[in-house]
Write a structure and sequence with these properties.
This protein has 511 residues and is mainly α. It is built from 19 helices and four strands. The strands form two sheets. It has a two-stranded antiparallel ribbon with strand order 1-2. Strands 3-4 form a two-stranded antiparallel ribbon. A hairpin with a 2-residue loop joins strand 1 and strand 2.
């Protein structure tokens, strides 16, 4: 049956063959230069940064208090279960595109597009959120050097504050020009080539790990244990503290672990993807979780948690130590850390758009790879410009909430995809298998790890959606409006453009 004679539902539910996905990946023109070490660095580069340098302060001040370290654990568990699923899929389907490519093979084109559209949003917003933190640290560092940055040029147009455990919004009249420039600079480095940016990431990762360890080692000597009491503050209504607050903080911190997904995006550029990609995914999760917990404990021990609701909480903490030279060093380390996250995020956004456009669901210019640099440079330009605009306009709290919804949606689909692939294609085996087994119900395999991943992701989404509903009831409709408009735009783009123009190298495997 020809694609044009099929109904919309049939087109949306048809699946692309695994062989076609792999063949497309081989024709993309990307160079296989990355080994296990480079992928581990890529994961750490994208994970380690935003979680401790940006959102930890708001998560502790508004929701969890010193129990923010428990929020890190919950977020890591959700990402860990999903990371195991990613590791198996990336070893069986070693191509760029990550969850999008996995969904094409398993759940069909329509579901793959919906997932990809949310992942694109996730990358756009994550870059903007990290850039907002970058602006905060740079402004603080320049202040130490007696260079004053006008507040209107380092503050987003919309600001957010916590009242009674819920988020309230206001307009500031500013525009975060510093954050805009940070995003555009990261896009420029990515355009220069994956090899060069991998070296840049390596240097930045080594610096930021050393500086973060220095912060933990020195800061631990100045901890006031009274700041940890009560460790879990009593609930004050809504998501303000208590266990509801810990779960809400975990949802906010969820996006800080996005880096391991970027590793799976690099499968098409890995030398031995079936071995190296799982190492990069799981290794980066373990390393960064340990560092996050240690740094979070020191941060809340140095500063009373209610004072940490700033975009540069580590800068605030090191200033309390009273060592001006050390404070400058830590702020420089924070900037390098956030810079590496911006680089890795720009990498992931350009690679997934390349995979989508290769199937005709996005315009063809996203597929253009620079003949000398070997990078999808037009995609980097487009995503850099969009993220820069978001960084200028929106505060970290809104960005973090929308990112959480996008990430959790993608992760749930990945968990489902593992079970589908095991059930329908038991002949396929990669270099990694999800542990703990599962049960067969008829012809369907239900895995313990994928089910736990789905449950944890739903738990991350629940408090964000609850807060968003409360905002709408109070008249703050901006976050919900952004989400609704974006979803409707994605549906219109797919139905009006993608279904008519997509290349259909797929097989009808519904039987």
């Amino acid at each position: 049956m020809k694609a044009r004679s099929m109904g919309r539902w049939q087109l949306a539910t048809r699946r692309k063959s695994l062989e076609a996905v792999v063949a497309d990946g081989e024709r993309a023109g990307l160079h296989r230069r990355l080994g296990a070490g480079s992928l581990l660095v890529l994961g750490v580069a994208n994970i380690l940064g935003a979680g401790i340098y940006v959102v930890t302060g708001t998560a502790a001040a508004s929701f969890a208090g010193p129990a923010v370290v428990l929020a890190f654990v919950l977020a890591a568990l959700a990402c860990g279960f999903t990371g195991l699923c990613y590791a198996e899929l990336s070893s069986v389907i070693p191509v760029s595109g990550s969850a999008y490519s996995y969904c094409q093979v398993t759940l069909g084109e329509g579901a793959a597009w919906a997932l990809a559209w949310m992942v694109i949003l996730e990358y756009l917003l994550a870059a903007a959120a990290v850039a907002a933190g970058f602006a905060g640290y740079l402004t603080s560092l320049l202040g130490d050097w007696h260079v004053a940055v006008p507040l209107a040029l380092a503050t987003s147009s919309v600001t957010a504050s916590q009242q009674g455990g819920h988020t309230e919004l206001a307009f500031s009249g500013g525009i975060n020009l510093v954050a805009m420039l940070a995003v555009l600079a990261a896009a420029a480095v990515q355009i220069a080539g994956v090899g060069r940016s991998a070296w840049a990431n390596l240097v930045l990762v080594l610096i930021k790990i050393a500086v973060l360890l220095a912060f933990v080692a020195v800061g631990s000597q100045f901890i006031d244990a009274a700041n940890w009491r009560p460790f879990l503050p009593a609930n004050e209504g809504g998501f303000a503290y208590g266990w509801p607050g810990v779960l809400r903080a975990a949802a906010m911190l969820f996006f800080a672990y996005l880096g391991f997904e970027t590793v799976s995006m690099a499968a098409a550029e890995a030398r031995q993807p079936r071995r190296d990609v799982p190492v990069g995914i799981l290794g980066s999760l373990v390393v960064c979780t340990i560092l996050y917990i240690a740094a979070g404990a020191v941060l809340t021990g140095l500063v009373p948690f209610r004072e940490l609701g700033v975009p540069d909480p580590v800068a605030l903490a090191v200033d309390r130590i009273g060592w001006p030279g050390f404070a400058v060093l830590i702020k420089i380390g924070a900037l390098t850390g956030l810079g590496s996250v911006l680089l890795a995020n720009a990498y992931g956004a350009s690679r997934i758009s390349l995979s989508i456009a290769r199937d005709g669901l996005l315009p063809a210019f996203f597929t253009r790879v620079h003949p000398k640099l070997g990078t999808p440079w037009l995609a980097s330009v487009a995503f850099g410009a969009a993220s820069a605009l978001l960084a200028a306009l929106l505060p970290i709290s809104i960005l973090g909430d929308l990112i959480c919804l996008g990430i959790a949606s993608a992760f749930i689909v990945v968990c489902i995809a593992v079970m589908w692939l095991r059930s329908r294609r038991p002949d396929l085996r990669g270099g990694f298998r999800v542990p703990l087994g599962g049960v067969w119900i008829g012809r369907t395999w239900i895995g313990v790890v994928p089910v736990l991943g789905i449950v944890m992701c739903l738990a991350m989404m629940a408090p964000v959606l609850g807060d968003m509903v409360a905002q709408v009831r109070r008249g703050d409709v901006l976050p919900a409006s952004i989400l609704v408009v974006y979803v409707l735009a994605g549906a219109s783009l797919y139905l009006g453009y993608g279904q008519r123009r997509a290349r259909r190298q797929i097989q009808d495997s519904n039987a």
